[in-house]
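Class prep. Protein, please:
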Amino acid sequence: MKVSVTTISVAELDVDLLLILRTREQSDGAMSDLTSGFGGAVRRAAPDFSGEPGVSLLLYPETGSARRVALLGLGAADGVTNEHLRRAAAEGARLARQVKAETVGISVGDWSVDAEDASQALVEGFILGSYRFERYRTKHAEEASVQRLVLQAVDKDKAVRRGAERGRVVAECVCSARDLVNLSPDEKTPVLLSRAMERSAKKYGYLASVWDRALIEEEGMGGLLAVNRGSVEPPTFTVLEWMPDNRRNEHPVVLVGKGITFDTGGLSLKETENSMDAMKSDMAGAAAVIGVMEAVARLELPVYVVGLIPATENRPGENAYVPGDVLRMHSGKTVEVLNTDAEGRLILADALSYAKTYNPEIVIDLATLTGAAVVALGNHAAALMTSEDAGAADRIAALQVAGERTGERVHPMPMYEDYAKQIESDVADLKNIGGRGAGAITAAKFLEAFVSYPWVHLDIAGAAFLRKEMPYRPVGGTGFGVRLLVEYLREYADRRRG
């Protein structure tokens, strides 16, 4: 989708559909400011438009250049946020699809949100709301797709252009992550996923290095190798790197993404309905890291970032690892396996241990790790856990701020040392499950045993894959984490500006 900015008047904007966002206060009366540009249709429709969030009204104007005009509600003027703009633009995308519009304009108003942020939110909301995964459909719905999105800015057009371009790039990277999650499992085996990363790196200018089984064995990644034993497909471990010359950090921010390309549960086999049938999404953490790497390279962020992607299937093959096995991990620690469906933490533990070699400033892992996180937070936020040390409050605050700005919210959960007792093993250093209570937290405590640096764990199980559509988030892969971490890295770079 081509995105551009214009300063011509809203009445002169020649598009199939023009989106005008209005606050509750702006919906009062006859909206005379719009009547002069679009005729009496606006005045007559005014009583039917409240300006509340989620409300939209489609009009066919008598004057002006736009073929259709849609009024979209934002709520109270003093409460408009990035998320209100994002959701309103997504509703505009729905209307555009309904009327088969190929060109769409959005009027950028004077809201309480900074103009650059507002334009980014509008473009993100529209592109993400327009997303459809059509790869496997042999008969496509008869609907036009939007080819051109135009933002109409009365002033501050330079800021609007910056925000619009950033919004386009970030949204496209989210869509890239969504596509990976939605792929059929046979098209994203660990080897095929690693090749996709190599293609992405070549296209966007970052580095990708793929380890095969021999290198993984040489490095001693016992968790990754054990989970892979039931699969005929070999594991991979991929290192992604963006290290620009103008980087503001000597040591990297390391992002670790869980790459279980399909999870049957292994010998601890999952039920199919509402469980295994969605397990093509168990590599959503890896997809998010790939999306972030694409975005930081395309935006040329001045920050050194490394992505680590351990990837394997978890299948119940003839040589599958079994409950009772004791594994020797990359760190040298031993782990008693009591449930082969608690496999994500095993491959993440090896990657987190390897991350130490970079002497990282911070490591953030993303994983569809536990059903317990879904029970706790549903689909609206990711669970955030971090070591309870002197820097914990700052790490939590930075990600929460990024979450509020992007609408990809995170919520902290406690990491009391008492929870570590639940993963003590009778025969090894640790066991890979901690019981029914506090499942998301004990999984994080397991991971914490393999880190020795500032670290944050994001359990994105509820937010990464949906069975019911939400505003600008489709059924299937959502790409959760891409916008969150791009915003976090932008702020991270700004804090280190010389």
Summary: The chain has two domains: 2-153, 175-495. The CA atoms of residues 178 and 477 lie 5 Å apart.
